[in-house]
Structure formats: structure tokens, C-alpha cells
# Entry
Amino acid sequence: MEARWWQGGYDPAGTLTEAVCGLCFHGCRLTVDKAGLCGVRRCTPAGLESPCLGRFSSRAVDPIEKKPLAHWRPGSWIFSLGSLGCTMRCPFCQNHHIAQPQKAVPLKELDHRHLATAVRKLGLSAVAYTYNEPALQAEYILAAAPLLREAGIATVLVTNGMFSPALVRELAPWIEAANVDLKTFSPRAYAALGGSLDVVRDNILFLADAGVHLELTTLVVPGISDAEEDFLRAVDWVAALSPDLPLHISRYFPAHAYAAPPTDISLLQRFAALARQKLAHVHVGNVR
Ligand code: SF4
# Structure
């Protein structure tokens, strides 16, 4: 499957010298043989390539609440696909073995023309692109979505929301539901994680306007996203968008390159109580 959302730069002899990727907000400018920040999209002499398209590291059948989506088809199950790479670089990533892999991960191909049949065989009616950043499967998602919709199967994203404007415009009409991370309301903390508060806000607004069922997740990470003033600003912003928009406040556990102790449960409960003063649907998650 060919990668899209990129432009080539050529020398006078017409040889490709660089590719500028426009899939996510980073807009990586890549010379030949270089990969983008996501580690997945790469400039080759033939153009930008993404060897992971249609190839998956993980597939599972999950309860919808695990995505987490609490207000969309509650009690249902969903076919979940994950691949490789991410457009952010969170040091605490729970899925770093596929999002920021340090060694080869086996991938299995799943032709987009066979996806609807595979989902139906499982007795399911929804597919989630999850576990790693789904934007990196955008070409596959857009190829599969019309076939899925025709078969009565919904497309769901679990995403960090770092889409470029060109990508979100194309994706939104095909997405029935999404859980988007709202990692923090500190622009500086977002940038330190390789993301952008402005970009995620713009994309949340775009998806909401497009009628996508949206739920948001804030992982409360000590030292990164546990400042009460930032959290309250996030709640105010969500409430202004819609007090009915569900917010999941999730507990962090040490992982990957971040070793701070797990989030104090009393802090999660305090944040939840504060959020409930302005939002109708607040869920505390990942509390074992
Ligand atoms: S998807 Fe984003 S991070 Fe990856 S190459 Fe494109 S612009 Fe860079």
C-alpha cells in the first residue's frame, strides 16, 4: 500500500533528494534513507514508504470499555488492531515495545479487503485501531473504512490526536468513535512529550464538529501531568466544548523510561471530584 500525505524534493536531474511528510503535525523533512520521528515512515529513493501499512503486531478482541469508551455501545466487544510506531515520545509509554520498538517486532499482514469478513466471523461489528498510534495506519484505515461501513462495521480510533489538518479532514468522516488523549494542559509538558497542546485541541474540536463520538483520556503522571492548575484548565476547556463529553482519568504505572511510583489513588479521586463539578461523565481508570 502506498504512503500518502507527502511531497518529494528533487534535484535538477529529477532524482528524489528528500520527502516532506504531512501525516502528522511534525512535518518531518527526510533525506533518503532517513526515518521520521515516528520511526515508521521513511524516505527511500522511490519516495516516502511506510512498511507497516496493513501489517500488524497485535490483534485482539477487547471489551469496548478497555479502549476506553464508556458511552459508545457499552458492554460490546471490539476487534482491536495495533501495529508499530508513534507520533509522540512519551517516556512512560505502556506500549513502548510496539510504539517505540528497540528491536524487531513480528508483523502479520491483514489485507484491508478481508478485514470485514474477519470481523464478521468473530461476530463483531466494530474495529479499533489502537495500542500504537493509528494515524500511522491512515492509508489502510481509509481503504478499509468504506468496506467496513458497507458491512455495518464501525471504525474506532484510540489516538494521541497529533493529526495534520489534511489527515483529520479525510479521516473524520469515516470514524464512528474515538478516544483521544488529552495528556496535559501544559503546552511545555506536551512539547516535552513530542506533542502539541494546540494540535490536540484543534483535532478534538474538528472530530467533535464532524459528529464523531468522542471520549478523552488524561493519564495522570507524577511530575508530568499531575499539576492541579493544569488539570483544572483542561476540565474548563472540555466543559466549554461540552459538559457531556466523557473524560477518563487514568492511573499511571511505571513503564519504559519513567520510574516514578504509580499515581496516588487519592490524587485521582481528587481530580475526579473536581472534574465532576463541571463534567457529567468522569471515569477513573487503570485502578487495579
Ligand atoms: S508521520 Fe509524523 S513523525 Fe512520522 S514521518 Fe510523518 S510527519 Fe514525521
User: Anything to note?
Assistant: The CA atoms of residues 17 and 38 lie 20 Å apart.
